[in-house]
Amino acid sequence: MTPAGIVAVVKRDCPTCALVAPVLDDLVARGVVTTVLREDDDAGLEASWRLGIETVPTLVRDDERIVGWSRDQWEAFTGVAGLGPDLPPQRPGCGSRTLDPGVADDLAVRLSGDRMRSRRIELGELEDEAEAMFERGWTDGLPVVTPTEARVLRMLEGTTRPPDEVVAVVPPDQVRCTVEKVAVNAVLAGCLPEYLPVVLAAVEAACTDEFNMHGVLATTYFPGPVVVVNGAVARAIGMNSGLNALGQGNRANATIGRALQLVVRNVGGGRPGEIDRAALGNPGKYTFCFAEDEAGSPWEPLSVERGLPAGASAVTLFAGGGVQAMVDQLSRTPESLARSLALCLRAVAHPKLVLGFDAMLVVSPEHSRVFKEAGWDKARLRTEFDSLLALPGHELVRGAGGIAEGVPEALASSTLPKFRPGGLLIVHAGGTAGLFSAIIGGWASGPAGSQPVTREVGS
Predict the structure, then answer these.
(1) 407 Cβ partners below 8 Å, 6+ apart?
(2) Scanning 84, 174, 229, 359, which has the fewest C-beta atoms within 10 Å of its C-beta?
(3) Is residue 128 one of the residues assigned to a domain?
(4) Which residues, at least 6 apart from 52, have a Cβ–Cβ distance to it below 8 Å?
(5) What's the domain range around 65?
(6) In total, how many domains does the chain have?
(7) Over the stretch 19-68, which tens digit does the pLDDT of each residue have?
(8) Which band of pLDDT confidence, cut at 50, 70 and 90, is reported for residue 113?
(9) Is the CB of residue 342 less than 8 Å from the CB of residue 385?
């Protein structure tokens, strides 16, 4: 029995389409090809775009398709023998018109633009786009990418979530933020569509009560959201977990963190000088995002330590300030290196302040090798830190050491931990050369301030 219901897609200026025209006429006459879509007219071009055609001629039946001309393939696909006996056995096709510059964008806007609910803003003919966005307050102080309808629609292709789905209620203005609104800000930030699921997870994490984005903004202290990415998604989108991981130069690292900050600014109203009251701030408030080096780590990933299954793609948000450098080029035993790290960790916020501030310790590969070779897992290192960072109250009280800052005198006889339980995050990242690690001090810890939040990255 001859299969039916085949659709053929062709265009006029394709030599292969012209070559197979007699074959198509024959198949139409037999009732095998039921529809011929010609990309030279609007209806055919729109249908081709909806079918996702990249090459013509293409034969389509349900989820199957044949691209270009191959006698053997066409005969097997149509069930008709002896096709085009005078034609060469095969010829490659040509690019679909939907791939011509600007055509796909125009079609997407015309045919899918009605899915979008964001307010359209028309710029004057003589307005400079970059300057217009500065003037409207949509930027973080650096130029942004114009969020045209076509760009936002392309960004939305990065997720299966519907554009009108509410992702979170964004502080401080408590505005309901949809997937589309996140996509608009991801375009502004310079993201690629494949980054969007990570940005969505980061927005969800930032807008939880536990993370307390409103408080992170309103404090006069330094913090902004630090985004750590784990799992296959970090590798798939090319994130940097190695050399210069906390620095510039990687598009995914730079734009994912920036997109989160722009959502908080443009949707939630969290602008410097208004609700954002940081006395000094830190450069990471532009963007602070990196991936953990799981492949080179001697320890379980941060996301697994925080309760997600191994292999899950995830983001962890931490309210952190700037990077404090830690240098130890001589320690070759885990005991010595742990003591060095602990001594530097004491300086978070102030060496005499305890329990009030969390921290993130980013251990570099050369330092982690010392622990790996000694067989220290992360739990063993934490046990060592618990001991080393149990501090005598008489050294911490106000006035001790001739320093007015400190804890109340009533705690002089106590032994106090530097960090609350769970208040020290340990991450593995960095280049393979350099006996340095990094400490990222946090803001007020626990329920009264901000707590780290981990969210799985969906599709």
Answers:
(1) 352, 353, 354, 393, 396, 397, 398, 416
(2) 174
(3) no
(4) none
(5) 6-100
(6) 2
(7) 999 999 999 999 999 999 999 999 999 999 999 999 999 999 998 999 99
(8) low
(9) yes
3-state secondary structure string across the chain: CCCCCEEEEECCCCHHHHHHHHHHHHHHHCCCEEEEEECCCHHHHHHHHHHCCCEECEEEECCEEEECEEHHHHHHHHCCCCCCCCCCCEECCEECHHHCCCHHHHHHHHHHHHHCCCCCCCCCCCCCHHHHHHHCCCCCCCCCCCCCHHHHHHHHCCCCCCCCCEEEEECCCCEEEEHHHHHHHHHHHCCCHHHHHHHHHHHHHHCCCCCCHHHHHHCCCCCEEEEEEECHHHHHCCCCCCCCCCCCCCHHHHHHHHHHHHHHHHCCCCCECCCECCCCCCHHHCCCEEECCCCCCCCCCHHHHCCCCCCCCEEEEEEEEEEEEEECCCCCCHHHHHHHHHHHHCCCCCCCCCCCEEEEEEECHHHHHHHHHCCCCHHHHHHHHHHHCEEEHHHHECCHHHCCCCECHHHCCCEEECCCCCCEEEEECCCCCCCEEEEEEEEEECCCCECCEEEECCC
Residue 306 placed within a domain: yes
The distance of Cα 410 from the centroid of its chain, to the nearest Å, equals 47
- Asked if residue 330 is part of any domain, the answer here is yes
CATH of residue 55's domain is 3.40.30.10
Greatest CA separation for the chain: 100
Same domain (yes/no): 263, 377: yes
Residue-wise pLDDT tens digits, 198-218 = 999 999 999 999 999 999 999
Q: Is the pTM of this model over 0.90?
A: no
* Interval 265-290: pLDDT, tens: 999 999 999 999 999 999 999 999 99
Is the domain of 272 the same as that of 383? yes
Is 138 contained in some domain?
no
